[in-house]
Design brief:
The complex is a heterotrimer of chains A (398), B (332) and C (333). Chain A contains eight helices and 18 strands. With 398 residues, chain A is α+β, with helices and mostly antiparallel strands. In chain A, the strands form five sheets. Chain A has a six-stranded mixed β-sheet. Chain B has two domains: 184 residues, Thiamin diphosphate (ThDP)-binding fold, Pyr/PP domains (Rossmann fold, 3-Layer(aba) Sandwich), CATH 3.40.50; 129 residues, Rossmann fold. In chain B, 36% of the residues lie in helices and 21% in strands. Chain B is globular and about 60 Å long. In chain B, 58% of the residues are buried. Chain C is of the alpha/beta class and 333 residues long. Chain C has one domain: Rossmann fold, CATH 3.40.50. Chain C contains eleven helices and seven strands. In chain C, strand 4 and strand 5 form a beta hairpin. Chain C is globular and about 50 Å long. Classes of the chains: A alpha+beta (398), B alpha/beta (332), C alpha/beta (333).
Chain lengths: 398, 332, 333
């Protein structure tokens, strides 16, 4: 049996439509015969088959546009010896795999606008550091008031000449300022959370063997660029579990629980230079895993470069934090107000597990729920975790 | 051989002597181009050479830039050593396909099998009221192309000493002679040797600002340096000599020392070689910069005919001085 | 002008076998390239020589080992006929370092120093000035060899054609200009691009000897090329041959051929140079069916081997990317 695939007819051809099949199942074909008429951007082109045989089946119907390389027909060899060198059609070129970023920990408001940057030449900064001169005290004589090396040296000279040396101030950079502001905001939010929200905590262990096995198999069938990370399954499971226990999804405002209009899951992302954001992916419960994966990667990338949309920052109705990559086993999280729940996942650990009266090693993840006792109670919290567990046992349905 | 006493000469004469010596030294060398023979060369560079070497080696061509540049490439492939003269860089555009698609690429496309030891000389630059189609400075453009080398001799010494190394180079070398330089007078020893075509030259050492230039604007840049010194600004002047490959080392060492750079380039500012030099300074000497890199280039306009307009379009001494002054003192 | 037809000298069996084998090698090689391109093994552009084999094979018979050849992007046939190995060409098409241009050139830039094969040029008309220069070098150095320059009739529209023809004739350089007139420059028919479609007339306006040849008859192609080459070598200056031929396939793989009639293609296929020569050689008792079968088998084996070679080839290491921009030896001496 050999496969007849949509040929690549040009460097820019990506797809073609079979407008007319010139052969039917059962027809004998030989190398060089025209078997179909294909529509491309450049017009109709007749395509030939390069093998001898009998058409077994036509896989793609007339009128359907398919990418180059798609299986079009199956050909049965009829008593001819196989060709000396089997030509395997080249699959889509593998690009470098997308970087794996697991979204982890707590959450924080977006960083404040960059501070107004003083005009100091790179050389002057270097000199100021060397001479322990506080740039804030230096008057710039360069263009537009820029501080030059000479200015710094003059200032250093003034200081050395008898005035008390200013306390050594560590050089500030815009990045450091941003980080400090972020820390302050995190501090405020967390303090408020612990002060106002009566937290209760529930934990469970989830057998991930089904989910991970399914994921492995699923990923084998996907090109490298479209592979899924297990964190995507966690997010989807949480989003779907919300349908069973809706009191986990929403905001506590003015003394009452307001359920979320959609399931917008906040994903906690740590920033390289320190600090946290937890922007939301909207309507996770309605998303296909593919889309969710892409959305998650895109969000991580933009969170790290500081380009988040306002709606992402403010719309989360429940948050998930995955500390697995960091190595933590269990998460005891702090809810980010005004949300009412935080789901935490630790790392996947091989553990002894009893099932069906037998003991075996299974990959297990510790899942925890930190919930607002004003909006829900332990019974509901337990059901929520149980729902997540159940959903993860049937990964193909996610 | 003892160094001979320097004699008075001109840039034009220096180029002629270089060509003559090359023809004498290697019988494979020949000069080919429009009006190089009977006419004596559009800029009189090859005057007298036809009588000395004959029409096979001082070869007049029809007005077919593409064909005779391509033929130069083919001839170099075939084992001779042509010096192709394109009358000016303005006409070289007719041969761009041969230069960019053949000369620059054959070594690569053949996987290293065929190199092209070709020299192309062209006159370049503005300043003689020849208007838009006869006033281009496209050396920087050519310097964009991998596979060729681009030289800009700015002094009599370089005019004399660059040709032989260019002929010895196994790959195509383009030599740009600024039209305003041919009449420049100076002294040169008769046995002045060859120069290193891969290194820039420091024409005037200094400490306060690096003035970086090449070719036809060197003279004005040196004048600017003089003017600056009377204001107490000690400028260093770098003559790039080679635009491809650029001598980054010399540029960076200079700017690391002076902390300020002004690039003087007769090309139009946008996307010119001055932009490339700026990028390299920023990449390699960022933390030694005490001010942004400045550029004095031609105005973004096709070269006008009227003298005052042409003068206003080109980089001039006052602009170079003002630029350097601004970098050093923070104001014009 | 009348086309040159009929043999000017008797062909023996050995020569007939050789001509046939070389044409069949090109035909099957090009068919294999079509297959590999469709499967994505060969990328970029692919221009097949199918139908025009008689020209390259016939013309090459007139060339000496130390003559030079400049060709176009439709040059696989010329390279094979010149003696560049099918393995080296196939590996080059695959982009492997074992290719004749180290994988740097691909289908359109086959180069081979050993056979003085100077490409492989993707600019229509771009090779003509090179050929003029190669011939110039030979003349200046007193070497009696010629440069054969192959190009399509499309090049006649380019300025470089006129400049090169003029320069070659003016300086009486030993160039054999071989124009393969297959009637279409990509999708543009000759009559739609030239005010004067008689190419030999154009060539002769440069005071150059020129005559047309039946490009579907390998014997005629050889005879014309030999006659012209002899004249060039004897100091007769450059010559121009217009080989009237036809490509059975599209300009490149990605071409819907909207510009010509199916019927026209079928008409020309009736004049396929390979069966035509095979039939004639059989008629004259020079070969038999068994010979044909043997040739097909040998060619199939050679091509299979070249594909194996290409498949097994290696990719040039990325670290070597910036090699071959400048020569690796210091001077040209």
């Amino acid at each position: 049996m050999s496969e007849f695939r949509m040929p690549s007819l040009g460097a820019d051809m990506e797809a073609g439509t079979v407008v007319e099949w010139r052969v039917h199942p059962g027809d004998t074909v030989k190398r060089g015969d025209i078997v179909a008429l294909v529509e491309t951007e450049k017009g109709l082109i007749e395509i030939e088959i390069f093998a001898d045989g009998v058409i077994e089946s036509l896989v793609v119907p007339e009128g359907e546009k398919v990418p180059v390389g798609t299986l079009l027909a199956v050909v049965r060899d009829e008593g001819k010896p196989p060709p000396a060198v089997k030509i395997e059609p080249v699959k889509a070129e593998p690009r470098a795999p997308a970087p794996t970023e697991a979204p982890p920990t707590a959450m924080v408001p977006p960083p404040p606008a960059a501070l107004q940057r003083p005009r100091v030449s790179p050389l002057a900064r270097k000199r100021a550091k060397e001479l322990a001169v506080d740039l804030a005290t230096v008057r710039g004589t360069g263009e537009g008031g820029a501080i030059t090396e000479a200015d710094v040296e003059r200032a250093a000279g003034r200081t050395a000449a008898g005035a008390p040396a200013p306390a050594a101030v560590p050089p500030t950079t815009a990045a450091a300022d941003r980080l400090a502001a972020m820390r302050k905001a995190i501090a405020a939010a967390m303090a408020r959370s612990k002060r106002e929200i009566p937290h209760y905590y529930i934990g469970t262990h989830i057998d991930m063997s089904q989910a991970l096995a399914w994921l492995t198999e699923e990923n084998l069938r996907r090109p490298v660029t479209e592979r899924l990370l297990y964190s995507v399954l966690l997010l989807k499971a949480v989003a779907l579990a919300v349908h069973e226990v809706p009191e986990m999804n929403g905001l506590w405002i003015d003394g009452a629980f307001r359920p979320g209009t959609g399931v917008h899951v906040g994903v906690a992302i740590s920033l390289r230079q320190g600090g946290l954001v937890a922007p939301a992916i909207h309507d996770v419960d309605k998303m296909q895993l593919n889309d969710l994966m892409r959305a998650m990667l895109d969000l991580v990338k933009r969170a790290r470069t500081g380009v988040l949309r306002g709606s992402e920052v403010s719309d989360a109705t429940i948050t998930v934090t995955n500390l697995g990559e960091q190595g933590a086993e269990t998460v005891f999280g702090v809810i980010y107000p005004p949300q009412v729940a935080l789901v935490g996942f630790g790392r996947v650990i091989e553990q002894p597990w009893a099932a069906d009266g037998m003991i075996g090693a299974r990959p297990v993840i510790a899942a925890s729920l930190a919930a607002d006792h004003r909006a829900s109670d332990g019974h509901r919290g337990g059901r929520f975790l149980a729902a997540i567990d159940r959903l993860l046992q049937e990964p193909e349905k996610l | 051989m003892t160094a001979q006493v320097p004699t008075k000469t001109t840039y034009r004469e220096a180029v002629r002597v270089a060509i003559r010596e090359a023809l004498q030294r290697d019988e494979r060398v020949f000069l080919m181009g429009e009006d190089v023979g009977r006419y004596g060369g559009c800029f009189a560079v090859s005057k007298g050479l036809l009588a000395e070497f004959g029409p096979e080696r001082i070869r007049d061509t029809p007005l077919s830039e593409s064909a005779f540049v391509g033929a130069g490439i083919g001839a170099a492939l075939g084992g001779v050593r042509p010096i192709v003269e394109i009358m000016t860089v303005n006409f070289s555009l007719l041969a761009l396909d041969q230069i960019v698609n053949n000369a620059a690429t054959i070594l690569h496309m053949s996987g290293g099998q065929f190199n092209i030891p070709l020299v192309i000389r062209m006159t370049t630059g503005a300043g003689r009221q020849l208007a838009a189609q006869h006033s281009h400075s496209l050396e920087g453009w050519y310097a964009h192309i991998p596979g060729i080398k681009v030289l800009a001799p700015a002094t009599i010494e370089d005019a004399r000493g660059m040709l032989w190394p260019a002929l010895e180079d196994p790959d195509p070398v383009l030599i740009f002679e600024h039209g305003s330089l041919y009449n420049v007078e100076g002294e040169l020893a008769a046995d002045a040797g060859t120069i290193d075509i891969c290194k820039a030259a420091i024409r005037r050492p200094g400490t306060d600002v690096s003035l970086i230039t090449y070719g036809g604007t060197l003279a004005r840049t040196l004048q600017a340096a003089e003017a600056l010194s009377s204001e107490g600004i000690n400028a260093e002047v770098i003559d790039l000599r080679t635009l491809r490959p650029l001598d980054s080392e010399t540029i960076v060492a200079s700017v690391s020392k002076t902390h300020r750079a002004v690039i003087v380039d007769e090309g139009w500012r946008s996307g010119s070689i001055s932009a490339e030099i700026t990028a390299r300074i920023v990449e390699q000497a960022f933390y030694d910069l005490d001010a942004p890199v400045a550029r004095v280039c031609s105005a973004e306009v096709p070269m006008p005919y009227a003298k005052h307009l042409e003068d206003a379009a080109l980089p001039q001494v006052p602009a170079i001085v003002a630029s350097a002054r601004r970098l050093v003192s923070g104001h014009e | 002008m009348n086309e040159e037809g009929g043999p000017s000298r008797a062909i023996d069996r050995e020569h007939a076998l050789r001509l046939l084998r070389e044409m069949i090698l090109i035909r099957r090689f090009e068919e294999k390239c079509a297959e590999l391109y469709s499967a994505g093994k060969i990328r970029g552009f692919l221009h097949l020589y199918i139908g025009q084999e008689a020209v390259a094979v016939g013309a090459m018979q007139a060339l000496q080992p130390d003559d030079a050849i400049v060709a176009t992007y439709r040059e696989h046939g010329h390279a094979l006929a010149r003696g560049v190995s099918a393995e080296a060409i196939m590996a080059e098409m695959y982009g492997k370092v074992e290719g004749c241009s180290r994988g740097r050139g691909g289908s359109m830039h086959l180069f081979d120093a050993a056979t003085r094969f100077y490409g492989g040029n993707a600019i229509v008309g771009g090779g003509l000035p090179l050929a003029v220069g190669l011939a110039l070098a030979d003349k200046m150095q007193g070497r009696n060899r010629l440069t054969a320059c192959f190009f399509g009739e499309g090049a006649v529209a380019e300025g470089e054609f006129h400049e090169s023809m003029n320069l070659a004739a003016l300086w009486q350089l030993p160039v054999l200009f071989c124009c393969e007139n297959n009637l279409y420059a990509m999708g543009t028919a000759l009559a739609r691009s030239e005010s004067e479609t008689d190419l030999c007339l154009k060539a002769s306006s440069f005071e150059m000897s020129a005559w047309p040849v039946d490009g579907m008859d390998v014997v005629a192609c050889e005879a014309a090329a030999r006659r012209a080459a002899e004249s060039v070598r004897a100091g007769g200056g450059p010559h121009f041959l217009e080989f009237r031929t036809y490509r059975f396939r599209a300009h490149s793989m990605f071409d819907a051929e909207l510009y010509r009639d199916k019927a026209e293609v079928e008409e020309w296929k009736k004049r396929d140079p390979i069966p035509a020569f095979g039939a004639r050689a059989k008629e004259e008792g020079l070969l038999e069916d068994a010979d044909l079968a043997a040739i097909e088998d040998a060619v199939a084996a050679e091509i299979a081997k070249s594909v194996e070679f290409a498949e097994a080839g290696t990719w040039e290491p990325v670290e070597d990317l910036t090699r071959f921009v400048y020569s690796e030896r210091a001077t040209s001496r």
